[in-house]
Amino acid sequence: MALVVILTTLGAYLTGSIPFGYLVGRARGVNVLTSGSGNIGATNVGRVCGKRWGVLVFLLDFAKGAVPVWLASLWDAKVNSAWLPQTLPVLAGISAFLGHLFPIWLGFRGGKGVATGAGVIAVLVPFLTLLVLVVWGILVYFTRFISLASMLSASLLFVLRITLYPAPWSRDHLIVTLFCLLGAILVLIRHHANIRRLFAGTEPHV
Questions:
Q1: Across the chain, which distance is largest between two alpha carbons, in Å?
Q2: Who has the most CB within 10 Å: 31, 54, 137, 143?
Q3: Taking the chain, what is the end-to-end CA distance rounded to the nearest angstrom?
Q4: Calpha distance 200→11 (Å, rounded)
Q5: What is the distance, to the nearest Å, from the Cα of residue 188 to the centroid of all Cα atoms in its chain?
Q6: How far apart are CA 56 and CA 50, in angstroms?
Q7: Residues 60, 39: Cα–Cα separation, whole Å
Q8: CA–CA separation, 66 vs 109, rounded Å?
Q9: pLDDT tens readout for residues 42-82
Q10: For the segment 19-46, what is each residue's pLDDT rounded down to a tens digit?
């Protein structure tokens, strides 16, 4: 089982590390690391390369979070039953998420994890993901700030997890609940520069 854990962790991290935003930017003749906000995420790619390329990067980053978790879920029932339920998929999700935040290919300089995190939770908690994505879209429409919508939506995911589930801290649900909490914290931390700009009134609108 140790081999399964190692392969899951390493494979998910390397998948999450694929810098699709950087690669798409390079294909368009743009170095996103030195353009716009300098971020490899879909928002910056959309600003410097065009909206359709930003959408493409979002979908690719979403997939690199969803696919490792889905594959790990196929093995979850086969691993040690003493583990908490969904341990392997959550481990894959964390690894893919951290891979996007700290990609080895770019000197650990990555994105903010919103799209990749969305891919992870889409497999772990699909119903909550749908609710959060709807709220995210509404927030973007009314506030015109993608960063603000992303931070509020990540926080909302955790709130919904602990309020809509009857026993979110029970053995059957604990590992996913902790992931929702960790993901929200990491998204907020990665948006620290956006938070400063929001308070300063210099954060760019959509």
A1: 52
A2: 54
A3: 46
A4: 40
A5: 12
A6: 10
A7: 16
A8: 21
A9: 989 998 999 999 999 999 999 999 999 999 998 876 665 56
A10: 999 999 999 999 999 988 888 999 899 9
- CA–CA gap between residue 184 and residue 37 (Å, rounded): 21
Q: Where do the domains of the chain lie? A: 2-200
The answer to whether 164 touches 91, Cβ cutoff 8 Å, is: no
HEC per residue, 47-98: HHHCHHHHHHHHHHHHHHHHHHHHHHHHHHCCCCCCCCCCHHHHHHHHHHHH
Output the six-digit token pair for 31: 């170095």
> Per the structure block, which two tokens stand in for 201?
């009134």
3-state secondary structure of 141: helix
**C-alpha span between 188 and 190 (Å, rounded):** 5
* Sign, CA torsion 123/18/39/58: negative
Report yes or no: 41 and 23 within 8 Å, Cβ to Cβ: no
The Cα–Cα gap between 33 and 19 comes to 11
Calpha distance 30→192 (Å, rounded): 25
In this structure, are residues 30 and 82 in contact, taking their beta carbons and an 8 Å threshold?
no
* Backbone dihedral angles phi then psi of residue 64, each to the nearest 5 degrees: -75, -10
